[in-house]
Amino acid sequence: MRIRIPRMVALAAAVVLAGVTSVSGTSAATAGTPAPAKPTIVLVHGAFADAASWSGVIERLQRRGYPVVAAANPLRGLASDAEHVRTVLDSVRGPIVLAGHSYGGAVMTNAATGDPDVKALVYIAAFAPDRGENALALSNKFPGSTLGATLAPVGLGDGTADLYIRQDLFRQQFAADVSPRQAALMAVTQRPIRDAALSEASGKPAWAGIPSWFLVAGADRNIPVEAQRWMAGRAGSRKTVEIRKASHAVGVSHPGPVADLIVRAATAR
Q1: By C-alpha distance, which of 58, 70, 249 is closest to 171?
Q2: Close Cβ partners of 137 (under 8 Å, ≥ 6 residues apart)
Q3: In whole angstroms, what separates CA 70 from the centre of its chain?
Q4: Domain chopping of the chain, boundaries
Q5: pLDDT beneath 50: ranges in the chain
Q6: CATH class label, 36-267
Q7: To 10 degrees, what angle do helices 55-63 and 255-267 make?
Q8: What global pTM score does this model have?
């Protein structure tokens, strides 16, 4: 028997099949669409934050004509998070500059390995692990992190837990140079990270084959400043910028310098 499909349904189906679902408000290019003249900036947030933490950086990049995708980092496990970000990278046509904050740096270190479209890595107060390392060990490699005492775990019933920063301690720990009002909102909307993600071993690092840039937050209480400098040196950073009084939430408190460093990486030859 022949099934007749109403004309409006058929047209709607054709529209869906012809397009690609957007990622964080930016549509991935389809096969027939020319690649953008400028590289696409893909941003990866870290723990205790979400994609909106890049808002000030995104505004500045868009004003300079860069297409931007702010990936939603699941924060469940390093390998699975990296695989998720890899699907985002695969949806983008043309060259990519990949920037990660905090744990997002560890995720992009794994997600970009072997991807010929990723032309630069930008670490913003971020982890840059080598093979076999994990975020927890790197944060304890040098003194200075006070994160552990501020965490409030919520059990997941499988022996692991989601980690939150206590709301009453969030500003002093994570965002000391952000206004009290904004920090209070960030504390309420923070995304938890599964504890196992912080101790999961990293794979082959993308920074071993892709040029990197680093921004060091000089008053960071999550990742010690010395750890950030050490990781930048080990990765052979082409340029390391340090903002002396910046908190871990440097992308929120200093979006201008963060955007400037990403543009510098995007325009490097």
Answers
A1: 249
A2: 199
A3: 8
A4: 36-267
A5: 1-31
A6: alpha beta
A7: 50
A8: 0.87
